[in-house]
Design brief:
heterodimer, A: 235 residues, alpha/beta, Rossmann fold, six-stranded mixed sheet, four-stranded antiparallel sheet, 7 helices, 30% helix, B: 379 residues, alpha+beta, six-stranded mixed β-barrel, 17% strand
């Protein structure tokens, strides 16, 4: 198994054409190892979210090479790319993006339902994952009945339920207060980090930096330096 | 994913009910107005439909429809009888008169004069009495509307009298005739009696009713009649449609009803489309999340179409039920008789609702398909 979950070489992404073209990624060289939690940090507008979207296969790069879990993403087209994402990636969004009409367990079960699981089996598995995240008693609650921290934990469950090899998180604590943010990051680290899995987190919240194994600093469309937290995270 | 689509749809009750109401309202308006229109058009030919004994209607060559007749000379009847292939031919008078009740109340009526011997032309559905008694002198049959007008709230009774043009006629039968286009009572009497009632004109033979001889088709009989007499001959069905088309082409009725139906279609499409579009736009982040998670465009389109079909089916069902309820509730009203919802109207309305749902969902589908899943990473 390739020890690197993500390998970017000279990755470029430009939006628009001609005079209106905006170069957001300007030659990113970056790797994300399995078994670790890597943070992607930097000032607003430096290209963190664009890089995350490209790595997740939601945007196509304009140039350079990108391999995710050993697969060159450029070789995947249409339905294959969608299937690759569904099987191998887990997503955690800044605004949680839970479906308001579904219960917590049903929300967590969405990736399994998308994979064709029967609802009953999918929801049962979701309940078990939610229990691991401390939400056993809230499985049937609707999103609007949950606190922000609880909603983010449901989003974690949704990202973990299909046991993906890469989890991408976009500002997972920005909608939470400091204490809740700290708590959910503890949970994420505990539940998500596995030897075969990489976790990539985009954040500007320096309070959660101690949870990272590695921190990649981006600026002006490039990864400028990568810090390894000696001795592992200090949380 | 079907479950998710269903939950997304019904999760927002206000929009869900708004969508259903928009489609139900459109369905009701379309099916109701088209039913009324068809009923009205059917009424224009109701006196033709009521004549079940004769296949052929023969008239002046320039006659365009039932209610505007140039009377034929009596000898035309004998000319028709002389055409080879005509089994029998009888006269029919159709005109108008005024009837006065015993209390002085009067009303215009449609007066039908039937062949004295055979009474061909009388509707077969008799509510009370014996139509053969029409062969007695000074007798008449009247339809239910007429009876209820002149004797309101009273039970159907034979032997009562009404005055027509200074003739007092005795009611010997009450007929369940189809409603005419103008909502006037219909009075039936013998041909000779009818001629006396309306006064003297040179020609008074409105129509000749005929039947082809066995082995002779309607078309062949019509060809022979036209060739030999120069008169216009039509099957009852063709004459009925000719009358309907005359009203369609020469009155504002279809335009007025058409406008209502188009408004229903447009309002239904706009309201349903806008609500459905807003519903989709408000769920764009959710659809984006589903796309990011790995739900294909095809499945998301399937979800949207399923939602559209559900609201379409429920809205259509409610709208059709409302229309059916209206016609059930007014079924006993004699002034509204003949108005009903035909299966063809239900099918046509279903097609229109499908169009509404298709157009309403097409905009939403497009919006979701062009949606970049990366939108979920933008705050």
């Amino acid at each position: 198994m390739n020890p690197m979950a993500v390998q970017c070489r000279d990755l470029h992404k430009t939006f628009g054409v001609g005079e209106d073209a905006v170069k957001v990624l300007r030659g990113v060289d970056f790797t994300v190892p399995r078994g670790e939690m890597t943070f992607l940090v930097g000032p607003s507008g430096c290209g963190k979210t664009t890089l995350l979207s490209v790595i997740a296969g939601l945007l196509n790069p304009t140039g350079g090479d990108l391999e995710v879990l050993g697969v060159p993403l450029a070789s995947l087209r249409g339905g294959t790319a969608v299937e690759f994402r569904r099987k191998n990636l887990g997503f955690v969004f800044q605004q949680f993006n839970l479906l308001p009409a579904l219960t917590a367990a049903e929300n967590a079960a969405v990736p399994l339902l998308a994979a064709g699981w029967k609802r009953k089996a999918a929801v049962e598995k979701a309940e078990s994952v939610l229990a691991d995240l401390g939400l056993a008693s809230r499985c049937r609650a609707m999103p609007n009945q949950l606190s922000g921290g609880q909603q983010q934990r449901v989003a974690f469950a949704r990202a973990l339920i299909h046991e993906p090899h890469l989890i991408v998180c976009d500002e997972p604590t920005s909608a939470l207060d400091a204490e809740t943010g700290h708590h959910v990051m503890e949970l994420l680290r505990q539940a998500a980090v596995r030897p075969e899995r990489a976790v990539l987190v985009v954040t500007h919240d320096s309070r959660i930096f101690p949870f990272a194994d590695r921190i990649a600093h981006m600026n002006d469309g490039r990864v400028e330096k990568i810090e390894t937290q000696s001795g592992g995270p200090t949380c | 994913m079907r479950y998710i689509a269903w939950q997304m749809l019904t999760g927002d009750r206000a929009k869900y009910l708004g969508l259903i109401f928009a489609i139900a309202f459109s369905t009701f308006l379309m099916s109701h107005q088209v039913s009324i229109f068809c009923g009205l058009m059917n009424r224009t030919s109701s006196q033709i439909d009521d004549v079940e004994d004769a296949n052929l209607w023969i008239m002046d060559a320039k006659t365009q429809y039932l209610d505007e007749v140039k009377a034929l000379p009596d000898q035309d009847l004998y000319r028709i009888r002389g055409v080879e292939g005509v089994q029998w031919a009888v006269p029919l008078f159709k005109g108008s008169s005024r009837v006065r009740g015993q209390d002085g109340k009067f009303r215009g009526v449609i007066l039908m004069g039937l062949d004295d011997a055979s009474l061909v032309g009388l509707p077969r559905s008799v509510r009370l009495g014996d139509p053969r008694r029409l062969q007695d002198p000074e007798t008449m049959a009247i339809d239910e509307t007429g009876y209820r007008f002149f004797f309101p709230g009273e039970p159907y009774t034979l032997g009562r009298t009404l005055d027509l043009n200074d003739h007092t006629l005795r009611i010997v039968a009450i007929i369940n005739s189809s409603a005419p286009f103008v909502n006037l009572p219909v009075v039936y009497t013998r041909y000779t009696q009818a001629r006396e009632l309306v006064g003297r004109e040179r020609n008074q033979l409105s129509f000749i009713l005929a039947r082809p001889a066995p082995g002779v088709t309607d078309a062949e009989a019509i060809r022979r009649i036209t060739e030999r007499t120069g008169l216009k001959a039509l099957t009852a069905n063709a004459f009925g449609w000719e009358t309907i088309w005359y009203y369609i082409q020469n009155t504002g009725i279809p335009i007025n009803f058409g406008i209502t139906v188009v408004i229903a279609l447009v309002v239904g499409t706009v309201v349903a489309g806008q609500t459905f579009y807003l519903f989709t736009v408000e769920n764009l982040k959710q659809f984006g999340a589903l796309k990011a998670i790995g739900v294909s465009d095809g499945r998301i389109v399937g979800m949207i179409l399923m939602q559209a079909v559900i609201v379409g089916a429920i809205g259509y069902g409610l709208g059709i039920a409302m229309t059916a309820g209206f016609f059930l509730a007014t079924g006993d009203n004699l002034d509204l008789r003949g108005f009903r919802m035909l299966p063809e109207i239900m099918l046509g309305t279903a097609a229109a609702v499908f169009l509404i749902v298709f157009m309403a969902s097409a905009v939403s589908v497009r919006r979701v398909i062009v949606l970049e899943p990366a939108v979920v990473f933008r705050g």
